[in-house]
Structure formats: C-alpha cells, structure tokens
Amino acid sequence: MESLRERYEQLLSRIERAALRAGRKREDVTLIAVTKVFPASAIRAAYELGLRDFGENYVRELERKLPETRDLAGVRFHLIGHLQSNKARRAVEAFSAIQTVDSARLARRLDEALAALSPDRTMQVMLEVKLSPEETKSGADPDELPALVEAVRSCPRLSLTGLMTMPPFSDEPEASRPYFQKLRELAAACNLPHLSMGMSQDFEVAIEEGATCVRIGTALFGARKET
Ligand SMILES: *Cc1c(COP(=O)(O)O)cnc(C)c1O
After folding, report:
1. Of all atoms in ligand 1, which is nearest to the CA of residue 216?
2. How would you classify residue 82: left for phi > 0, otherwise alpha for psi between -120 and 50, otherwise beta?
3. What does 8-29 look like in DSSP terms, one character per residue?
4. Do 188 and 5 form a contact (C-beta atoms < 8 A)?
5. 37 in ligand 1 pocket by Cβ < 6 Å?
6. What are the two backbone dihedrals, phi and then psi, of residue 43, each rounded to the nearest 5 degrees?
7. pTM, 2 dp
8. 98 Cα: distance to centroid of ligand 1 (angstroms)
9. 227: three-class secondary structure by DSSP
C-alpha cells in the first residue's frame, strides 16, 4: 500500500508535468484535496504534508469535522457540492469559499448571510456551470451565465473569481477535454480568471486546458466507500 505522502508526491509531479506541457507553472494550479466521506483525521494528515485547501460536498459533513480541525492555522475549506439557499447561513459560517453558486437567489442569500455574520465579512465564490444535459447535475445553464455574473457582481460581499464544472463521468480523460475548453471560453467571455475543473481521472487534461484549481479525492486518499 502506498502512503498518503507517496500519493501526494506523485500527484504533485503529475500536476507539474501537465502544467509544463501547457507552458504553465506548477504554482498556477491550486490543489484542492477532496475529503468527502473521509474522517477529520485525513484532513489533519494531508495538512501535515503541506496541503491547505480542502473540498467538501456537504455543509453538515464539514460541520461535523470542524471541531477536530479548528487548530489547523491557514486551512481553507471550499464547498464543491450543491448548496440549497436555506443553508446559506450555515455554509458561510463553515466554509472559506463556495464554488457552486448557481442562481441569483443563492448569491443574494449568501450576501445577506455574510452581512449578518459581521459587517466586513466577504467571500470568494465561483459559479458552477452545467455543460452536459445529465438531469442529476446541478449548475447554471451557460445561456444564463451573463445575467448570473451580473447578479453576483452586484452582491457587495461576494467576490466572483471564476467558473467551476464537472463533466459527465468517463473512464477516458480525453472525453472531458471539450467540456474544459468550453468552460475556459465562457470564463474568458465573462472576464473571470479562475477555472475549477479536473478530478482524479482527468486533472491533467484540465490543467492542459487552463485549470487554475483541480479537485482531487481518490488519487490522494484512495477509493471512497460511498454510502
Ligand atoms: C468527489 C468530487 C471530486 C473528487 O473526485 P475524485 O474523482 O475522487 O478525485 C471533485 N469534485 C467534486 C465536485 C466532487 O464531488
């Protein structure tokens, strides 16, 4: 069995090689370690190796892990799962950034929740874009993007940094490339610098297509026992 350290080192060198192939630098790509399903001890172990950015899919799951991670200075939790408007308040309390804003209504709820927490609280957010017709995928329709970007930019406490997407699952990394290219074009059209795209099976293709943020679970922590 490989250790977390070995998997982390292999991952870093694969990220670096993909970045170099695309004429980019390793530092231009943020690695978000996706710890859903894994216990708080996995977050602590990855933190000790130097990881600072973590992705979680559910507000309640992070809330359960927070008491065991409070002492980790500089740790950042990114919400990468769908968020319902009625959980906006709890989401802004638990997370440092939210990648899955997909409606103007949710953006306004987050803005209000930040105002209620403290007068000068702000938060970086991304818009999740739905690029495939699969019914189960959340995210905003690309046609609605200009209006949604405008709505988020009018929320004084939200700082819109980029777009996030999740292509349909495939064992073939190249199958994701057209989706990553599309997200890059949409971000450029909206003047947004960041692209959150690429998971364990397709992050190298995502980096070649301009990802500034890859979300990796399995390649770091091993297979999840999803319930
Ligand atoms: C689970 C998840 C990931 C990580 O997936 P792996 O294939 O385990 O790397 C990335 N992004 C989102 C939105 C996820 O839900």
Report:
1. 9
2. beta
3. HHHHHHHHHHHHHHTT--GGGS
4. no
5. no
6. -65, -45
7. 0.96
8. 15
9. coil
- Any ligand 1 atom below 6 A from CB of 216: yes
Nearest atom in ligand 1 to 99's CA: 13
State the pLDDT confidence band at 88, using cuts at 50, 70 and 90: very high
Strand partners, 78: 55, 97
Of all protein residues, the one whose alpha carbon is nearest to atom 6 of ligand 1 is 217
**Per-residue pLDDT reduced to its tens digit, 163-209:** 999 999 899 999 999 999 999 999 999 999 999 999 999 999 999 99
Do the Cβ atoms of 210 and 195 come closer than 8 Å?
yes
Helix 4-21 to helix 40-48 angle (10° resolution) is 60
Q: Is the CB of 145 under 6 A from ligand 1?
A: no
Number of Cα atoms under 13 Å in the Cβ half of residue 137: 16
Ligand 1: which of 11, 30, 34 to mutate, most ligand atoms within 8 Å of CB?
34
Residue 78 CB–ligand 1 contact under 6 Å: no
